[in-house]
Sequence to fold (337 residues):
Amino acid sequence: MQRLTLTQHIRQAQLRHPGAQGELSSLLTQIGVAGKVISSKVNSAGLIDVLGSTGVINVQGEVVQKLDEVAEETMQDIVGRSGHVCALLSEERKSIMEIGEAWRGEYIVSYDPLDGSSNIDANVSIGTIFGIYRKKSKDPEVTRADWMRPGHEQVAAGYILYGSSTVFVYAAGDGVHCFTLDPAVGEYILSQENIRLTGACKQLSINACNAPYWDPWVHDWIGEIMKRNDQDKRRVSGRHIGSLVADFHRNLVYGGVFAYPADRRSPRGKLRLLYEAAPLAMIVEEAGGAASSGHGRILDIVPDELHHRTSLVIGTKAEVELAEKCVRDQVKEPAKG
Ligand code: P6P
Fold:
């Protein structure tokens, strides 16, 4: 494997698309720059005054951490001024942010600036998740037709995970690729090319403390997976960090499945479609895995609002399909009592 930089790898991919003008390549590179800035702040969080909360409650009803604000401002400053974006859709903002004429471009970026931020003070891995759409309407304004779209219309998606090292993972139609940031030179270097999630499911990632709120199918699904563990061998182990992007990346690398099903506390699901589920669904499908609400493909869901929430099962294809079967069986034979 060539030790390409992120920019070199993106450019190589661009050359495989003769019509490409390099705009998407440049946008992906700029998102990488934003990741470097956020990484530097996350990795020095204990040393500079960015730990803890701001005391502000965001549109999600969640307490905004200081690093959430730093990540949001960084995405606005760098990606918003990349010259390739006409609108930003952020977990942290109530509505879309239209980009002024001076910096305006043809893409829309939906993002969670810092997913898992409730874990920051405990030094748990957190990350930035993004999805990229090409503007659809000919209307000079950004209309709902430009962003209320199914995830299969994304042209690229990815995340930057701030963990023991900072990694940049993206998919743009040519496979899933991972780059590790070399902090000494400030460059992302290709570390895993064409990641595939086609092997056995070795890890199950779910917040088991939500069990009292689950629909019966979730218990059936977990039961079916746990049956694989017997006296001879433990084939599946539990791993759950409580930071979606970190749980997802571990499952992508080792082979696993993550679920945050809709439940009686979160009837539509907790996780957001546009900047959590849909970008990760594009990545997982390009790696050979699957992502479902339990009722259907995540990438086919059309959001009905900016912060549309969804039930999510994502990872190895067989386990996602098993979840869909358990949902169908529950519909056919509702639980007694
Ligand atoms: P719970 C983090 O706030 C997040 O959005 C995801 O990263 C994570 O998977 C989930 O919420 C954890 O939610 O209800 O298990 O604490």
About this structure: The mean pLDDT is 93. The first strand starts at residue 53 and ends at 57.
